[in-house]
Amino acid sequence: MADEIDLANDLIANEISRALKEIRQQSSEAVGTKFCVDCDDDMPIERQKLGFKRCVACASDAERKKLMYADE
Ligand SMILES: [Zn+2]
User: Fold this and answer.
1) Least confident of 21-25, 27-31, 43-47
2) CA 69 to ligand 1 center in whole angstroms
3) What's the CA gap between 34 and 45, in Å, rounded?
4) Distance between CA atoms of 43 and 32, rounded to whole angstroms?
5) What separation in Å is there between the alpha carbon of 41 and the centre of ligand 1?
6) Where are the domains of the chain?
7) Distance 36 CA to ligand 1 centre (A)
8) How far is CA 29 from CA 4, 32, 48, 54, 57, in A?
9) For residue 25, what is the enclosing H or E element?
10) Distance from the alpha carbon of residue 50 to the mean position of ligand 1, in angstroms
11) What is the C-alpha to C-alpha distance for residues 9 and 3, in angstroms, rounded to an integer?
12) 39-50: per-residue pLDDT in tens?
């Protein structure tokens, strides 16, 4: 039983390190901002790495506005 858990943990660790490597490669050019461009809040490091320039709240807000404008 313990071996299975170890194996699962190894798999998860491998998946995570692979995903992080991919993110780093992808974001080597498109690096996000340290602060949200809309509200100047601190950006979570995960969103910076993914190249986002808005915090979660502003991003969903911007997405909503985009949809609104698209309707016009
Ligand atoms: Zn924001």
Assistant:
1) 27-31
2) 20
3) 8
4) 9
5) 6
6) 1-30, 31-72
7) 5
8) 39, 9, 12, 17, 24
9) helix 2-26
10) 15
11) 10
12) 999 988 888 888
Q: How far is the CA of 32 from the centre of ligand 1 (A)?
A: 13
Which residues, 6 or more positions from 51, have their beta carbon under 8 angstroms from its beta carbon?
26, 27, 30, 31, 32
Would the CA dihedral through 53, 55, 59, 61 be positive or negative? negative
Measured CA to CA, the distance from residue 3 to residue 43 in angstroms comes to: 39
Q: How confident is the model at residue 26 (pLDDT cuts 50, 70, 90)?
A: low
The count of C-alpha atoms lying within 13 angstroms of the C-alpha of 28, restricted to the half-sphere facing its C-beta, is 6
Task: With a cut of 80, say whether residue 70 has pLDDT above it.
Answer: no
Rounded distance from Cα 59 to ligand 1 centre (Å): 7
pTM (predicted TM-score): 0.49
